[in-house]
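lol forgot to send this yesterday, sorry. C-alpha coordinates for the thing we talked abt
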Protein backbone atom coordinates (compact mmCIF):
# COMPACT_ATOMS: atom_id res chain seq x y z
CA UNK A 1 0.00 0.00 0.00
CA UNK A 2 1.24 3.47 -0.85
CA UNK A 3 2.76 5.45 2.01
CA UNK A 4 0.40 8.35 1.18
CA UNK A 5 -2.77 6.26 1.26
CA UNK A 6 -3.10 5.89 5.05
CA UNK A 7 -2.63 9.64 5.39
CA UNK A 8 -5.80 10.33 3.43
CA UNK A 9 -7.95 7.34 4.33
CA UNK A 10 -9.34 9.07 7.40
CA UNK A 11 -9.98 12.42 5.75
CA UNK A 12 -13.61 13.54 6.36
CA UNK A 13 -15.45 15.99 4.12
CA UNK A 14 -18.11 17.95 5.97
CA UNK A 15 -19.46 19.08 2.58
CA UNK A 16 -18.70 16.57 -0.18
CA UNK A 17 -16.51 18.07 -2.85
CA UNK A 18 -17.14 17.30 -6.48
CA UNK A 19 -14.78 15.68 -8.94
CA UNK A 20 -15.30 15.70 -12.71
CA UNK A 21 -14.18 12.55 -14.54
CA UNK A 22 -14.01 13.16 -18.28
CA UNK A 23 -13.81 10.70 -21.16
CA UNK A 24 -15.17 10.73 -24.68
CA UNK A 25 -17.03 7.42 -24.58
CA UNK A 26 -17.90 4.84 -21.95
CA UNK A 27 -18.59 1.17 -22.65
CA UNK A 28 -18.27 -1.54 -20.01
CA UNK A 29 -15.55 -3.67 -21.64
CA UNK A 30 -12.89 -1.06 -22.37
CA UNK A 31 -9.79 -1.10 -20.17
CA UNK A 32 -9.67 2.71 -19.96
CA UNK A 33 -13.34 2.79 -19.05
CA UNK A 34 -12.97 0.17 -16.32
CA UNK A 35 -10.04 2.10 -14.88
CA UNK A 36 -12.13 5.28 -14.82
CA UNK A 37 -14.93 3.58 -12.89
CA UNK A 38 -12.61 1.95 -10.36
CA UNK A 39 -10.62 5.16 -9.86
CA UNK A 40 -13.78 7.21 -9.38
CA UNK A 41 -15.09 4.60 -6.91
CA UNK A 42 -11.84 4.89 -4.91
CA UNK A 43 -12.32 8.67 -4.81
CA UNK A 44 -15.91 8.11 -3.74
CA UNK A 45 -14.63 6.22 -0.69
CA UNK A 46 -12.67 9.35 0.23
CA UNK A 47 -15.93 11.29 0.34
CA UNK A 48 -15.97 12.89 -3.10
CA UNK A 49 -19.11 13.37 -5.18
CA UNK A 50 -18.50 11.86 -8.62
CA UNK A 51 -19.59 13.56 -11.84
CA UNK A 52 -18.79 11.94 -15.19
CA UNK A 53 -18.88 13.98 -18.40
CA UNK A 54 -19.02 11.98 -21.63
CA UNK A 55 -20.47 11.79 -25.12
CA UNK A 56 -22.06 8.39 -24.60
CA UNK A 57 -22.55 5.81 -21.86
CA UNK A 58 -23.31 2.13 -22.44
CA UNK A 59 -24.25 -0.14 -19.56
CA UNK A 60 -25.25 0.42 -15.96
CA UNK A 61 -24.28 3.54 -14.03
CA UNK A 62 -22.46 2.77 -10.75
CA UNK A 63 -24.30 3.75 -7.61
CA UNK A 64 -23.70 7.36 -6.64
CA UNK A 65 -22.23 8.37 -10.02
CA UNK A 66 -23.74 11.41 -11.76
CA UNK A 67 -23.39 10.95 -15.53
CA UNK A 68 -23.71 14.00 -17.78
CA UNK A 69 -24.13 13.32 -21.52
CA UNK A 70 -22.94 16.31 -23.54
CA UNK A 71 -24.70 16.56 -26.94
CA UNK A 72 -21.63 17.42 -29.00
CA UNK A 73 -22.07 17.63 -32.76
CA UNK A 74 -19.82 16.89 -35.71
CA UNK A 75 -19.66 14.49 -38.64
CA UNK A 76 -16.06 13.55 -37.89
CA UNK A 77 -14.83 12.30 -34.54
CA UNK A 78 -12.33 15.07 -33.91
CA UNK A 79 -14.94 17.75 -34.73
CA UNK A 80 -17.34 16.15 -32.27
CA UNK A 81 -14.57 15.98 -29.64
CA UNK A 82 -13.80 19.65 -30.18
CA UNK A 83 -17.47 20.52 -29.60
CA UNK A 84 -17.48 18.24 -26.55
CA UNK A 85 -14.61 20.25 -25.02
CA UNK A 86 -16.54 23.48 -25.60
CA UNK A 87 -19.65 22.09 -23.92
CA UNK A 88 -17.57 20.68 -21.07
CA UNK A 89 -16.00 24.06 -20.36
CA UNK A 90 -19.45 25.65 -20.26
CA UNK A 91 -20.80 22.96 -17.92
CA UNK A 92 -17.87 23.28 -15.52
CA UNK A 93 -18.21 27.06 -15.50
CA UNK A 94 -21.82 26.63 -14.36
CA UNK A 95 -21.04 23.82 -11.92
CA UNK A 96 -17.46 24.14 -10.58
CA UNK A 97 -15.64 21.09 -9.22
CA UNK A 98 -12.62 20.55 -6.98
CA UNK A 99 -10.63 18.97 -9.82
CA UNK A 100 -11.05 17.72 -13.38
CA UNK A 101 -9.66 14.24 -14.07
CA UNK A 102 -9.26 13.37 -17.75
CA UNK A 103 -8.99 9.99 -19.48
CA UNK A 104 -8.56 11.51 -22.92
CA UNK A 105 -6.10 14.30 -23.67
CA UNK A 106 -7.96 17.61 -23.60
CA UNK A 107 -7.21 21.12 -22.38
CA UNK A 108 -8.18 22.25 -18.91
CA UNK A 109 -7.35 19.09 -16.94
CA UNK A 110 -6.00 19.08 -13.40
CA UNK A 111 -5.06 15.39 -13.64
CA UNK A 112 -4.60 13.22 -16.70
CA UNK A 113 -4.55 9.42 -16.66
CA UNK A 114 -2.03 8.55 -19.38
CA UNK A 115 -3.39 5.31 -20.82
CA UNK A 116 -2.60 6.17 -24.46
CA UNK A 117 0.77 6.31 -26.25
CA UNK A 118 2.38 9.58 -27.35
CA UNK A 119 0.42 10.89 -30.33
CA UNK A 120 3.20 13.18 -31.52
CA UNK A 121 5.86 10.45 -31.44
CA UNK A 122 3.71 8.07 -33.45
CA UNK A 123 2.90 10.65 -36.13
CA UNK A 124 6.34 12.25 -36.38
CA UNK A 125 8.25 8.97 -36.50
CA UNK A 126 5.85 6.58 -38.19
CA UNK A 127 3.43 8.57 -40.37
CA UNK A 128 3.86 10.42 -43.68
CA UNK A 129 4.86 14.07 -43.37
CA UNK A 130 1.67 15.37 -44.98
CA UNK A 131 -0.53 14.19 -42.07
CA UNK A 132 0.79 17.08 -40.00
CA UNK A 133 -1.20 19.47 -42.17
CA UNK A 134 -4.51 17.68 -41.57
CA UNK A 135 -7.09 19.27 -39.27
CA UNK A 136 -7.42 16.05 -37.29
CA UNK A 137 -3.68 15.95 -36.57
CA UNK A 138 -3.58 19.60 -35.52
CA UNK A 139 -6.52 19.08 -33.15
CA UNK A 140 -5.02 16.11 -31.33
CA UNK A 141 -1.61 17.77 -31.20
CA UNK A 142 -3.11 20.83 -29.48
CA UNK A 143 -4.81 18.64 -26.91
CA UNK A 144 -1.64 16.66 -26.19
CA UNK A 145 0.33 19.89 -25.90
CA UNK A 146 -2.26 21.21 -23.43
CA UNK A 147 -1.52 18.24 -21.15
CA UNK A 148 2.22 17.64 -21.59
CA UNK A 149 3.55 21.00 -22.82
CA UNK A 150 5.80 23.33 -20.86
CA UNK A 151 2.94 25.75 -20.10
CA UNK A 152 0.75 23.01 -18.60
CA UNK A 153 0.23 22.40 -14.89
CA UNK A 154 -1.59 19.09 -15.39
CA UNK A 155 -0.48 16.26 -13.12
CA UNK A 156 0.11 13.16 -15.24
CA UNK A 157 -0.56 9.68 -13.86
CA UNK A 158 1.66 7.38 -15.91
CA UNK A 159 1.09 3.66 -16.19
CA UNK A 160 3.78 2.83 -18.77
CA UNK A 161 7.50 3.43 -18.44
CA UNK A 162 7.72 2.43 -22.12
CA UNK A 163 6.06 5.68 -23.22
CA UNK A 164 7.61 8.07 -20.70
CA UNK A 165 10.81 8.71 -22.75
CA UNK A 166 8.71 9.86 -25.71
CA UNK A 167 6.76 12.38 -23.67
CA UNK A 168 10.01 13.71 -22.23
CA UNK A 169 11.63 13.85 -25.67
CA UNK A 170 8.83 15.75 -27.39
CA UNK A 171 7.51 17.88 -24.52
CA UNK A 172 10.27 18.04 -21.93
CA UNK A 173 7.80 17.27 -19.16
CA UNK A 174 9.45 17.37 -15.74
CA UNK A 175 9.42 14.54 -13.21
CA UNK A 176 7.63 16.89 -10.79
CA UNK A 177 4.46 16.56 -12.89
CA UNK A 178 4.61 12.77 -13.22
CA UNK A 179 3.38 10.06 -10.88
CA UNK A 180 4.07 6.45 -11.84
CA UNK A 181 1.37 3.92 -10.99
CA UNK A 182 1.53 0.13 -10.64
CA UNK A 183 -0.90 -2.08 -12.57
CA UNK A 184 -4.43 -2.14 -11.25
CA UNK A 185 -5.89 -5.52 -12.11
CA UNK A 186 -8.71 -7.00 -10.10
CA UNK A 187 -7.78 -9.80 -7.74
CA UNK A 188 -10.54 -11.96 -9.20
CA UNK A 189 -8.11 -12.55 -12.09
CA UNK A 190 -5.79 -14.54 -9.81
CA UNK A 191 -5.81 -18.32 -10.11
CA UNK A 192 -8.45 -19.65 -7.76
CA UNK A 193 -8.15 -22.62 -5.43
CA UNK A 194 -10.59 -24.55 -7.66
CA UNK A 195 -8.83 -23.60 -10.91
CA UNK A 196 -8.90 -27.20 -12.19
CA UNK A 197 -12.64 -27.47 -11.59
CA UNK A 198 -13.36 -24.13 -13.34
CA UNK A 199 -11.15 -25.14 -16.25
CA UNK A 200 -12.85 -28.50 -16.68
CA UNK A 201 -16.34 -26.95 -16.61
CA UNK A 202 -15.35 -24.23 -19.06
CA UNK A 203 -13.92 -26.69 -21.55
CA UNK A 204 -16.97 -28.94 -21.32
CA UNK A 205 -19.22 -25.93 -21.97
CA UNK A 206 -17.39 -25.01 -25.17
CA UNK A 207 -16.80 -28.57 -26.40
CA UNK A 208 -13.02 -28.60 -25.95
CA UNK A 209 -11.33 -31.96 -25.65
CA UNK A 210 -8.26 -32.81 -23.59
CA UNK A 211 -6.15 -32.73 -26.74
CA UNK A 212 -7.34 -29.26 -27.81
CA UNK A 213 -5.04 -26.26 -27.30
CA UNK A 214 -7.06 -23.10 -26.65
CA UNK A 215 -5.48 -19.77 -27.61
CA UNK A 216 -7.21 -16.72 -26.14
CA UNK A 217 -7.11 -13.12 -27.41
CA UNK A 218 -8.91 -10.38 -25.44
CA UNK A 219 -9.26 -6.68 -26.09
CA UNK A 220 -11.18 -3.84 -27.70
CA UNK A 221 -9.68 -2.46 -30.90
CA UNK A 222 -8.80 -5.55 -32.93
CA UNK A 223 -6.27 -3.88 -35.20
CA UNK A 224 -4.34 -2.21 -32.39
CA UNK A 225 -4.31 -5.47 -30.44
CA UNK A 226 -2.82 -7.27 -33.44
CA UNK A 227 -5.47 -9.98 -33.59
CA UNK A 228 -4.84 -10.32 -37.33
CA UNK A 229 -1.18 -11.07 -36.61
CA UNK A 230 -2.18 -13.82 -34.23
CA UNK A 231 -4.62 -15.38 -36.68
CA UNK A 232 -1.99 -15.36 -39.43
CA UNK A 233 0.40 -17.14 -37.05
CA UNK A 234 -2.25 -19.75 -36.27
CA UNK A 235 -2.88 -20.35 -39.97
CA UNK A 236 0.87 -20.87 -40.48
CA UNK A 237 1.08 -23.71 -37.92
CA UNK A 238 1.91 -27.19 -39.21
CA UNK A 239 -1.27 -29.09 -40.02
CA UNK A 240 -0.91 -31.67 -37.23
CA UNK A 241 -0.56 -28.89 -34.66
CA UNK A 242 -3.21 -26.60 -36.12
CA UNK A 243 -5.72 -29.46 -36.01
CA UNK A 244 -5.50 -29.37 -32.21
CA UNK A 245 -5.76 -25.57 -31.87
CA UNK A 246 -8.88 -23.56 -31.10
CA UNK A 247 -8.90 -19.75 -30.93
CA UNK A 248 -11.30 -17.60 -28.87
CA UNK A 249 -11.26 -13.86 -29.67
CA UNK A 250 -13.13 -11.74 -27.10
CA UNK A 251 -13.65 -8.01 -27.52
CA UNK A 252 -15.74 -5.07 -28.61
CA UNK A 253 -15.04 -3.89 -32.13
CA UNK A 254 -16.37 -4.18 -35.68
CA UNK A 255 -16.08 -7.92 -36.40
CA UNK A 256 -16.27 -7.64 -40.20
CA UNK A 257 -12.54 -7.28 -41.00
CA UNK A 258 -11.59 -10.14 -38.64
CA UNK A 259 -14.31 -12.40 -40.05
CA UNK A 260 -13.10 -11.76 -43.60
CA UNK A 261 -9.51 -12.51 -42.59
CA UNK A 262 -10.56 -15.76 -40.91
CA UNK A 263 -12.34 -16.85 -44.08
CA UNK A 264 -9.39 -15.89 -46.27
CA UNK A 265 -6.98 -17.85 -44.05
CA UNK A 266 -9.22 -20.91 -44.08
CA UNK A 267 -9.44 -21.19 -40.27
CA UNK A 268 -13.13 -20.40 -39.73
CA UNK A 269 -13.67 -23.87 -38.24
CA UNK A 270 -11.25 -23.24 -35.35
CA UNK A 271 -11.90 -19.55 -34.49
CA UNK A 272 -14.79 -18.25 -32.37
CA UNK A 273 -15.54 -14.53 -31.94
CA UNK A 274 -17.21 -13.24 -28.78
CA UNK A 275 -18.53 -9.80 -27.90
CA UNK A 276 -17.21 -8.21 -24.70
CA UNK A 277 -18.03 -10.36 -21.67
CA UNK A 278 -18.15 -10.10 -17.89
CA UNK A 279 -16.72 -13.59 -17.26
CA UNK A 280 -13.16 -13.08 -18.49
CA UNK A 281 -11.71 -14.83 -15.38
CA UNK A 282 -13.31 -18.08 -16.60
CA UNK A 283 -11.70 -17.67 -20.01
CA UNK A 284 -8.32 -17.05 -18.38
CA UNK A 285 -8.70 -20.24 -16.34
CA UNK A 286 -9.98 -22.32 -19.24
CA UNK A 287 -7.48 -21.37 -21.96
CA UNK A 288 -3.94 -22.69 -22.53
CA UNK A 289 -2.23 -19.50 -23.78
CA UNK A 290 -2.90 -15.80 -24.18
CA UNK A 291 -1.95 -14.58 -27.65
CA UNK A 292 -1.45 -10.78 -27.61
CA UNK A 293 0.75 -9.54 -30.49
CA UNK A 294 -0.36 -5.90 -30.20
CA UNK A 295 0.84 -3.17 -32.55
CA UNK A 296 0.55 -0.30 -30.06
CA UNK A 297 -0.19 -1.04 -26.42
CA UNK A 298 0.62 1.50 -23.75
CA UNK A 299 0.28 -1.22 -21.13
CA UNK A 300 -1.70 -4.35 -21.99
CA UNK A 301 -3.56 -5.06 -18.76
CA UNK A 302 -4.78 -8.42 -20.06
CA UNK A 303 -1.13 -9.57 -20.07
CA UNK A 304 -0.84 -9.15 -16.30
CA UNK A 305 -4.31 -10.60 -15.77
CA UNK A 306 -3.28 -13.72 -17.67
CA UNK A 307 -0.01 -14.04 -15.78
CA UNK A 308 -1.63 -14.04 -12.33
CA UNK A 309 -4.30 -16.47 -13.60
CA UNK A 310 -1.55 -18.93 -14.49
CA UNK A 311 -2.09 -18.53 -18.23
CA UNK A 312 1.19 -18.43 -20.21
CA UNK A 313 1.48 -15.38 -22.48
CA UNK A 314 2.88 -14.71 -25.94
CA UNK A 315 3.02 -10.94 -26.59
CA UNK A 316 5.00 -8.32 -28.49
CA UNK A 317 7.70 -6.15 -26.94
CA UNK A 318 5.71 -3.04 -27.92
CA UNK A 319 3.31 -3.77 -25.05
CA UNK A 320 4.13 -1.65 -22.01
CA UNK A 321 3.50 -4.58 -19.66
CA UNK A 322 5.48 -7.13 -21.71
CA UNK A 323 8.34 -6.84 -19.22
CA UNK A 324 6.12 -8.58 -16.66
CA UNK A 325 6.20 -11.72 -18.84
CA UNK A 326 9.99 -11.83 -18.73
CA UNK A 327 10.18 -10.77 -15.08
CA UNK A 328 7.71 -13.48 -14.07
CA UNK A 329 9.14 -16.01 -16.56
CA UNK A 330 5.55 -16.68 -17.58
CA UNK A 331 5.80 -16.93 -21.37
CA UNK A 332 7.60 -15.49 -24.39
CA UNK A 333 7.99 -12.00 -25.90
CA UNK A 334 8.36 -11.29 -29.63
CA UNK A 335 11.02 -8.56 -30.01
CA UNK A 336 10.69 -5.25 -31.85
CA UNK A 337 10.71 -4.43 -34.68
CA UNK A 338 7.91 -6.88 -35.31
CA UNK A 339 8.24 -9.56 -37.98
CA UNK A 340 5.37 -11.90 -38.75
CA UNK A 341 7.76 -14.79 -39.40
CA UNK A 342 9.18 -14.38 -35.89
CA UNK A 343 5.71 -14.51 -34.34
CA UNK A 344 4.85 -17.58 -36.43
CA UNK A 345 7.99 -19.40 -35.27
CA UNK A 346 7.60 -18.31 -31.64
CA UNK A 347 4.00 -19.50 -31.47
CA UNK A 348 4.99 -22.89 -32.83
CA UNK A 349 7.90 -23.04 -30.37
CA UNK A 350 5.61 -22.19 -27.50
CA UNK A 351 3.00 -24.80 -28.38
CA UNK A 352 5.64 -27.52 -28.72
CA UNK A 353 7.43 -26.49 -25.53
CA UNK A 354 7.37 -28.57 -22.37
CA UNK A 355 7.31 -25.41 -20.24
CA UNK A 356 3.55 -24.92 -19.97
CA UNK A 357 3.26 -25.89 -16.30
CA UNK A 358 6.43 -24.00 -15.37
CA UNK A 359 5.20 -20.78 -17.02
CA UNK A 360 1.82 -21.20 -15.35
CA UNK A 361 3.26 -21.78 -11.88
CA UNK A 362 5.70 -18.89 -12.25
CA UNK A 363 2.85 -16.54 -13.14
CA UNK A 364 0.73 -17.59 -10.17
CA UNK A 365 3.69 -17.07 -7.81
CA UNK A 366 4.38 -13.66 -9.37
CA UNK A 367 0.79 -12.62 -8.72
CA UNK A 368 1.24 -13.30 -5.01
CA UNK A 369 4.65 -11.62 -4.74
CA UNK A 370 4.16 -8.33 -6.65
CA UNK A 371 1.95 -5.25 -6.22
CA UNK A 372 -0.15 -5.55 -9.36
CA UNK A 373 -3.42 -4.35 -7.88
CA UNK A 374 -3.23 -0.89 -6.27
CA UNK A 375 -3.37 1.48 -9.26
CA UNK A 376 -6.80 2.90 -8.53
CA UNK A 377 -6.27 3.50 -4.82
CA UNK A 378 -2.93 5.18 -5.45
CA UNK A 379 -4.42 7.31 -8.20
CA UNK A 380 -7.22 8.40 -5.86
CA UNK A 381 -4.61 9.42 -3.30
CA UNK A 382 -2.76 11.54 -5.88
CA UNK A 383 -6.03 13.14 -6.98
CA UNK A 384 -6.83 13.94 -3.37
CA UNK A 385 -3.39 15.49 -2.86
CA UNK A 386 -3.92 17.66 -5.92
CA UNK A 387 -7.27 18.85 -4.58
CA UNK A 388 -5.68 19.78 -1.24
CA UNK A 389 -2.91 21.65 -3.06
CA UNK A 390 -5.51 23.73 -4.93
CA UNK A 391 -7.37 24.72 -1.78
CA UNK A 392 -6.77 28.33 -0.57
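and heres what i got for the seq, position by position
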Amino acid sequence: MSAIWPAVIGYVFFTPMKLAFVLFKYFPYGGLQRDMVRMAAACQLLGYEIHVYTLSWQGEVPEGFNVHLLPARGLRNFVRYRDFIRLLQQALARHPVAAVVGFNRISGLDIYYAADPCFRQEHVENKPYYVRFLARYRFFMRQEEAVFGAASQTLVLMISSLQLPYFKKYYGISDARIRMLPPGISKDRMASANKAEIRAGFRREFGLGDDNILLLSVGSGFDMKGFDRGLIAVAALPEELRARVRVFVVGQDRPGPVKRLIQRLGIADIVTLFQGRDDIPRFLQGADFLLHPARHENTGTIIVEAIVAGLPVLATATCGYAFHIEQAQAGLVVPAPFRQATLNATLQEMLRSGNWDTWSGNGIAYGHAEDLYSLHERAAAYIHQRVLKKQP
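Residues 1-14 have pLDDT under 50 and may be disordered. anyway ping me if u want another try
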